[in-house]
Design goal:
Layout lengths: L5 E9 L3 E4 L1 H7 L7 E4 L6 H16 L7 E5 L11 H7 L7 E4 L4 H11 L5 E7 L7 H5 L2 E10 L9 E9 L6 E2 L8 E2 L2 H22 L9 E6 L2 H10 L12 H4 L6 H10 L7 E7 L3 E8 L2 H7 L6 H7 L6 H8 L17 H6 L1 H6 L1 E4 L5 E2 L16 E4 L5 E9 L9 E8 L4 E6 L12 E12 L2 E10 L13
Parallel strand pairs: 4-5, 4-6, 11-12
Antiparallel strand pairs: 1-7, 1-8, 2-3, 6-7, 8-13, 9-10, 12-13, 14-15, 14-16, 17-18, 17-20, 18-19, 20-21
Helix pairs in contact: 2-3, 6-7
């Protein structure tokens, strides 16, 4: 590998706290569902908030000092149209204003394109998706929610060494209508299955053959083969049609978490990288409005990378999820079941001017530390101890672990998932903060529990999403942040 080659220097996957047992669908509706589970974004999550969490993990894994020149974000379910979603990710990561932030939203193919652009330089690529379908339908049971971020950079000797580099690729594009969703619709539609298989397989053969030829490889040279796409029948048939060794085709995780759409190929790649050895060749085949193939080769740096890897693997996250989500709550979170809300006023619409004035606090959770070391949350201009004015230094708290000092369980407060667990937490090194707990069992919360901060969508009013930070139980043995410290 030459010093000029750009590759993956860090990656992070984010799976939500919840999974839904597909059998619960059939039990409730008398039809639909299947074996296995699907991952489910919580009521306070969307594609943007999940992208923040994956990005924090990726930058942590890349190592201290890694700062991308730009963020490229892709999803099929953006929180906003006519507004860039990547700017919220940029702000939550505390990136400098000179770093760019760009969206590539729409179809699954856009995610591959965004990641390809990010891979040309020291940039961050993020794919995120929340998949849904009508109650009882195949898309509802087969879908899943997740986000994956990848940090790219060149070999520089500063510790940010590529663990995998792209060694080739090819594409085969054709215009045909297999799956579609028009603006304003919440669910997709799909053409008859046999047609999609007939359309995809010749393209897969063409793209795989071209990629292998361009990289001077044979199918037997591939150690891991990843095949993903929303057309399950074509995905199953593609390896045989392309002459690939079935023993090299990896588990696509759909039985355990469902198909996570735009994020899925990257999620399976992250799972492979979690366990791959040096000098192994990985083929990624994505069926989405055509076929894209990317060939990766791991480097010797992957061994030391794994030794210092400070974020949870894909398998660790799957094992840590809760699977007792009831179907009625799932439907409520997805908006298919409109239930009676708590008898409390709904929140007011977030206002743009104060949000801009408190930009660093609202999105980056940046407090202020005075000359005595006291941390003010929210940030203040005047020291509580000495009275000194404008002699503060900013301190980012989003990446600092904390301990629950006290808490209360509120069964009357407005929430899409009552009860609300409110807590006062003490940050390591100073700073006390009152916030909501999420991804937590109310009956299991205790004073002294360790927590970490997570970026969430508090609520949406008049089409404006109010993002801020909550606390969740700490992932034992993993410090999740941006790798920048305070």
């Amino acid at each position: 590998m030459t010093a000029s080659m750009t590759g993956i220097v860090g990656y992070g996957a984010y799976l939500p706290y919840w999974r839904l047992d597909r059998a619960a669908i059939g039990a409730a509706l008398g039809a639909g569902g299947a074996k296995g589970f699907r991952s489910v974004a919580s009521f306070d999550e969307d594609t943007t908030s999940m992208a923040v969490e994956a990005s924090r993990r990726a930058i942590t894994a890349a190592g201290e000092g890694y700062t991308p020149y730009a963020v490229w974000f892709s999803t099929t379910v953006p929180a906003y149209l006519d507004k860039t979603n990547a700017t919220a990710i940029h702000a939550a990561l505390g990136l400098p204003s000179s770093a760019g932030a760009y969206d590539a939203i729409g179809g699954l193919r856009s995610g591959l394109g965004a990641m390809k652009v990010a891979g040309t330089s020291t940039m961050l690529g993020v794919v995120s998706d929340v998949r849904t379908g009508l109650p009882g339908g195949a898309d509802e049971a087969a879908g899943g929610d997740a986000s994956v971020a990848m940090c790219f950079g060149k070999s520089s000797g500063d510790g940010h060494e590529p663990i995998a580099v792209e060694i080739g690729g090819a594409a085969a594009v054709a215009e045909f209508t297999d799956r579609w969703r028009t603006p304003g619709e919440s669910t997709s539609r799909q053409w008859e299955e046999r047609f999609g298989e007939q359309a995809y397989l010749p393209l897969a053969e063409e793209a795989v053959a071209a990629a292998l030829k361009g990289a001077d490889l044979e199918p037997s040279d591939l150690d891991h083969v990843i095949v993903t796409g929303l057309h399950a029948r074509a995905v199953r048939s593609a390896p045989r049609a392309c002459g690939l060794d079935p023993s090299t085709v990896v588990d696509d995780l759909t039985a355990e978490i469902g198909n996570t759409g735009a994020a899925h190929w990257a999620l399976v790649l992250a799972d492979v990288l979690d366990r791959a050895g040096p000098d192994q060749t990985i083929a990624v085949v994505v069926l989405a409005d055509g076929v894209d193939v990317r060939l990766w080769r791991t480097t010797g740096a992957i061994t030391s990378y794994r030794d210092r890897h400070a974020v949870p693997t894909v398998r660790e996250q799957i094992d840590a999820t809760r699977t007792d989500l009831d179907y009625a709550r799932f439907l409520t979170w997805r908006g298919f079941l409109h239930r009676e809300p708590p008898r409390r006023p709904e929140p007011d619409r977030p206002a743009s001017p104060p949000s801009l004035r408190t930009h660093d606090w609202k999105f980056g959770l940046v407090g202020s530390r005075d000359e005595t070391g006291f941390v003010h949350l929210p940030p203040a201009r005047v020291s509580m101890g000495s009275g000194a004015v404008d002699r503060m230094e900013p301190v980012r708290m989003a990446d600092t672990p904390a301990t629950i000092a006290t808490f209360t369980i509120d069964r009357l407060a407005y929430s899409m998932s009552p009860p609300v667990v409110a807590a006062v937490v003490d940050f390591d090194g100073g700073g006390r903060f009152q916030c909501e707990l999420t991804d937590v069992d109310p009956d299991a919360v205790k004073i002294g529990d360790r927590v970490e901060m997570t970026f969430r969508r508090l609520y949406t009013v008049d089409g404006i999403h109010n993002y801020f930070w909550k606390a969740r139980p700490a992932a034992t043995g993993h410090e999740i942040g941006t790798g920048k410290g305070n």
